[in-house]
């Protein structure tokens, strides 16, 4: 359904104006090329370039299966989101849909939680980027963190087109690196060049202790690491209000999810583990670096360091973009301070982006105080808060489909295949991952902050509702 149809359906109410793409006041500056690369880049981050080393050591070659199954779940999530986006393409998509189909409190919690997710992720990634810079230059981490934060903040205030262009090239670097690695591994397997040529073989996937060397339990235990790697894949939904042709570009971007996961995760791991035995990988060491070293390519470490630096800056750039939009969406619905609604002449949310960037500067202070373990101090909350958005997307889609089938709302032109059963399956999978996070001592810290954040949001919502009951309701 187009944004014009949305406006007619909602009878021109204030919320409808906020909901329709044109009525939000944003400029549709993101073209098909940029949307595609944002979608691709959202699925490729430091979770793959760095986190996969730990996952391989825990599960061995069976990690390939874990990525494949999790990738299927991600596809279900993205198709559920796509169905909602074609019903109403809005910039604050997750909180808007939760507000309409679950309730105003769900929209309130989703908007503020997703905002916090990107603030925390931004702090984490700018910290990581500052750490990567020390590979080449002996400069204080806090200096690099400050410079990166200021540059990305400035770029996001200029225009959405510049944000899209930055994401395009950031994603291009990541894609090129993975494809290059796949081609190099393919050359080693077929031609046999490099130091790894004599031992490289597809049989390494099962000859070193079997495909499940740590048992099925070891594979299942890596699912939280795998799901963390996919966080931010839903970012394409936030771009709906600023896409030039959302009815065409967004479905096309979402439908590329299966081959993106098949190539960049499953394909890359198959090739790497066919060249380097899984026993050579260690936690904390990028599997790409380990593979380059095994091949005898000394430049590998420098190349991967540049790529993960790019991945970190890409994530921080996305954080700058999405936090301002989420705060503005909350403000437009009366669930956040009104000054967050202010836009620049170029259509960017000035106050929301500035406020979020200011909080991200906390990362500069953390890097100044604890340069050695800054990353670990801010990373724990990202996984659980990011998965909350996925849960809200799935529940919203289930309830939307039920209403659409009853004729209460228009049918989407981009229906999720297998829904609602596919959405229920994805929900059960996510809840299973959360349970495993609670069992795993290392991952359990991710859950510690959730009750405190829930209490803060609950009290805030009660205050909001007491002061202005109308702002605690979804307006149609």
Q: Quick recap of the structure?
A:
It contains 23 helices and no strands.
Give structural attributes.
mainly alpha; single chain; disordered N terminus; 476 residues
Helical residue percent band:
55-70%
Separation of the first and last Cα atoms: 17 Å
Measured by DSSP, the beta-strand proportion falls in under 5%
Radius of gyration, whole Å: 22 Å
* Cα shape: globular
Instruction: Give the topology string: H per helix, E per strand.
Output: HHHHHHHHHHHHHHHHHHHHHHH
Q: Which residue ranges are poorly predicted, with pLDDT under 50 across at least 5 consecutive positions?
A: 1-23
The whole-number mean of residue pLDDT values reads 81
Explained architecture:
- The chain has about 475 residues and is mainly alpha-helical.
- It contains 23 helices and no strands.
- It has helices at about 5-10, 15-20, 30-40, 45-50, 50-60, 65-85, 95-100, 105-135, 140-160, 160-190, 205, 215-220, 225-230, 245-255, 255-275, 285-295, 300-330, 350-360, 360-370, 375-380, 380-405, 420-440, 445-465.
- Helix 8 (about 105-135) crosses helix 23 and helix 9 (about 140-160) packs across helix 10.
- The radius of gyration is 22 Å and the shape is globular.
- Residues about 1-25 have low confidence and may be disordered.
């Amino acid at each position: 359904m187009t944004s014009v149809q949305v406006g007619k359906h909602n009878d021109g109410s204030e919320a409808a104006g906020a909901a329709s793409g044109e009525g939000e006041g944003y400029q549709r500056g993101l073209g098909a090329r940029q949307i595609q690369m944002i979608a691709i880049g959202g699925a490729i981050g430091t979770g793959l370039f760095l986190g996969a080393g730990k996952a391989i050591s825990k599960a061995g070659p069976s990690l390939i299966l874990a990525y494949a199954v999790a990738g299927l779940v991600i596809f279900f999530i993205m198709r559920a989101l796509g169905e909602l986006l074609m019903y109403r393409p809005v910039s604050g998509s997750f909180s808007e849909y939760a507000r309409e189909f679950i309730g105003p409190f769900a929209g309130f919690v989703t908007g503020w939680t997703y905002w916090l997710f990107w603030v925390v992720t931004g702090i984490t990634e700018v910290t990581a980027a500052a750490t990567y810079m020390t590979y080449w230059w002996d400069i204080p981490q806090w200096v690099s963190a400050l410079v990166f934060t200021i540059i990305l903040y400035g770029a996001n205030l200029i225009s959405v087109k510049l944000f899209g262009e930055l994401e395009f090239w950031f994603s291009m670097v990541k894609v090129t690196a993975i494809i290059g690695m796949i081609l190099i591994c393919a050359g080693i397997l077929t031609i046999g060049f490099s130091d790894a040529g004599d031992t490289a073989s597809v049989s390494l996937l099962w000859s070193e202790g079997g495909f499940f060397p740590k048992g099925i339990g070891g594979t299942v235990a890596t699912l939280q690491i795998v799901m963390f790697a996919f966080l931010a894949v839903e970012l394409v939904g936030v771009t709906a209000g600023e896409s030039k042709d959302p009815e065409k570009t967004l479905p096309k971007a979402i439908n590329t999810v299966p081959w993106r996961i098949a190539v960049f995760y499953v394909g890359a791991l198959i090739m790497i583990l066919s060249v380097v035995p899984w026993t050579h990988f260690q936690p904390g060491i990028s599997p790409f670096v380990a593979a380059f070293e095994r091949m005898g390519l000394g430049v590998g470490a420098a190349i991967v360091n540049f790529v993960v630096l790019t991945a970190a800056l890409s994530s921080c750039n996305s954080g700058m973009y999405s936090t301002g939009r989420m705060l503005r969406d909350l403000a437009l619905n009366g669930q956040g301070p009104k000054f967050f609604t202010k836009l620049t002449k170029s259509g960017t949310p000035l106050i929301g982006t500035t406020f979020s960037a200011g909080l991200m500067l906390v990362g500069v202070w953390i890097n100044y105080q604890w340069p050695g373990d800054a990353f670990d101090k801010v990373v724990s909350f990202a996984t659980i808060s990011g998965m909350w958005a996925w849960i809200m997307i799935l529940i919203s889609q289930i309830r939307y489909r039920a209403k659409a089938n009853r004729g209460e709302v228009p049918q989407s032109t981009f229906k999720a295949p297998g829904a609602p059963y596919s959405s229920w399956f994805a929900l059960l999978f996510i809840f299973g991952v959360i349970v495993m996070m609670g069992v795993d001592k290392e991952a359990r810290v991710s859950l510690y902050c959730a009750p405190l954040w829930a209490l803060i949001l609950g009290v805030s919502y009660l205050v909001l509702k007491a002061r202005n009951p109308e702002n605690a309701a979804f307006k149609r």
